[in-house]
Amino acid sequence: MEADRVLSTQGSVTDFVGRSTVVGPVPFVPEVRLHLAGAAIPLWEELEALTGETNSAPPFWAFAWAGGVAIARYVLDHPEVVRGRTVLDIAAGSGVVSVAAAKAGAVSVRAVEIDPFAIAAIRLNADANAVNIQAECVDLLGGDGAPAGVVLAGDVFYERTMAARFLPFLERACRRGAVVLVGDPGRAYLPAERFQKVAQYEVPVSADLEDKPVKTTTVWRLVA
Question: Per-residue DSSP letters for 15-76?
Fold first, then answer.
């Protein structure tokens, strides 16, 4: 059951995101402030009770995942990658990557997700950082991300079926000339042979999300 069939308005989705999180700086990327949850499991259970869904995806939007944090750090440290360019943040989650791209001088930032709660979170996080982000609830994986000149994807290779959809999309974006960057903390389904390493960081993460408090996380550029 979709969230908009359970909750009466988009505003109520936004209210849920707002009351379930606290605004604060992101570890390792203190330039960015996000609405973040303290613990994953209680929020996940509350969300399932609210929507009536079981076995639903975790509330990715309530946390700063290592892959996205690494891209955000890289973009802020290397603003020339996005400055003056159009950016697409695919599977944007909380929007940490989008906020960083906007702060680094992107001319426009489009953040896409398939979860309406994530869209609400991205809009709240854009407001919290006083940046402009176009957040859309849409599945773009059948296309090539046009017309974005830069395509950013944080932590999208954690599952076989997801990786099988994302890699062709990213390859199509690369073939049409977009700069494609992926942040990955060592997930099993990243085809590293298709990428060039551009940076590596030790990213602190929530104990609720990962198997260790710090994840070695790489920013990769897809090569044509």
Answer: HHHHHT-EEEEETTEEEEEEEE-S-HHHHHHHHHHHHT-SSPPP-GGGS--HHHHHHHHHHH
Interior angle at CA 87, CA 86 and CA 93, nearest 5: 155
For 157-177, write each residue's pLDDT tens digit.
999 999 999 999 999 999 999
Domain 3-222 has CATH 3.65.10.10: no
Q: Residue 47 — pLDDT band, cuts 50, 70, 90?
A: confident
Domain spans of the chain?
Answer: 3-222
pLDDT-above-90 percentage for the chain: 79
Helix (H, G, I), strand (E, B) or coil at 194: helix
Q: Does the structure show a pLDDT above 60 at 1? A: no
Number of H helices, E strands in the chain: 7, 9
CA–CA separation, 25 vs 33, rounded Å?
4
**Average pLDDT across the chain, whole number:** 92
Q: How many CA atoms lie within 13 A of 212 on its CB side?
A: 8
| Cβ atoms of 205 and 156 closer than 8 Å | no
